[in-house]
Design brief:
The chain has helices at 2-20, 25-36, 87-95, 109-122, 133-146, 159-176, 201-208, 212-225, 230-261, 264-296, 302-321, 354-366, 385-388, 390-403; strands at 46-49, 57-63, 72-76, 99-103, 151-157, 187-194, 340-345, 371-375. The chain is built from 14 helices and eight strands. It starts with a helix and ends in a 5-residue tail after the last helix. Helix 3 (87-95) crosses helix 14, helix 5 crosses helix 6 and helix 9 crosses helix 10 (264-296). Strand 3, helix 3 (87-95) and strand 4 (99-103) form a beta-alpha-beta unit. It has a domain at 38-199 and 329-403: 3-Layer(aba) Sandwich (Rossmann fold), CATH 3.40.50. It is of the alpha/beta class. Helices cover 55% and strands 12% of the residues.
Length: 408
Amino acid sequence: MKLKCLFTLILVLMFSALAEARYPYCEALLALSKFKTVPLSFDHIEYFKSKNLPGLEMAYQLVPPRTENKETIVLLHGLGDYMEKMYPLARKFLDDGYGVLLVDLRGHGYTLKKTLEVMMEKNLSQFPESFQPEDNVKDITDLILDKGIKRFHIVGHSHGGGIAYALAHKFYLMKKDGKLKSPQSPRLLSIHMLAPYVSRIDKFWSDSAFTPEIMLQETSKQLVKAGADAQSIYSVFDPLFELFINANRTTQYFTDYFKIGWGGQKFIDTLTDPALEISLRKNFTQYFRNRLEKYVHRSLTEDEKKLVDIEAEVTLLVTKGNRSLDLLDRTHEIPPVNVDVQVIGARDDQVVPMAQLMDFNMRLKQAEIRNSLVFLEDPQADHFMNLDNTSEVYSLITREIRSLPKVK
């Protein structure tokens, strides 16, 4: 509680200082959006008014399917990114006649720009919104219903992969409760999670850093990089991954039970939060500065650096809120969905390791949820597969979509 109050105080002081310096939020944000925008045949970016938080709006782009027999693809970006990061995949789907819906999640891109404009207009010193995954889920659900999208698939990258699953669970509950009885009601057909971030960052640090399956994974990657045949190596190591994951399962159950049942998790949060915040703030700030410098081809001005600092702080808030979306917490069941779940991983992913996805895949099977797990053939493929391996990712997704039963 004390840490939360301290963090809030720091945020308030930061905004107060910027306000006193007459920092031009809107001008800098518009400049940032100009640098990052990638020309496409999309319509201009639009804003959807949130029904959950009046006055706040979610940025989106919607292109309908070319024909009635094609579905719409809902594309969700990752942590600290924005809808344009999904443009390479979006282009592929558009070329094939699919419709596309892209959004900037809360605290990201044009949605963040609009939020800061509201803060300037109303002279607010605190963010007038929360950054919990369920808030994104509610807004995207309302957007899909409002636009009359009939049949759709969800593709989410990293943090967006976790949001994609939560969104699928939302539609599962709506259908179960009889809220989607009309023939015109939207119908979710499948979800596709690209290197999904489905576990708390601090839990990943404490639980997964040096587990046997992670060490096996690193060993197999080094062997492939040294010239060993990738297929032969992974055919041996993949079963070993599953063996160690199963062996660690009982220990993990007791560990999680202690953390939650005896209040141990709160103690661990208190210890890890300060170090975690320092590290993440530094990494986010450097990432955003590098990204902006790439577009302006020069060193950043002081105003632009302040803008980056705000973006890093918001991303940190989103990360902390993501704790409520922990699909790998073994003390709880994975939320049910009634559609096929495809998980796509990368063999050289330093953010979401193969072993973590294999564990998630096993839990999906235990929950009797239709699922498939596949890793990209490229042994060098990393976390940003949606940008660097677009063609292979698109091929895997569309192959899965074509294998689904036809729905009118």
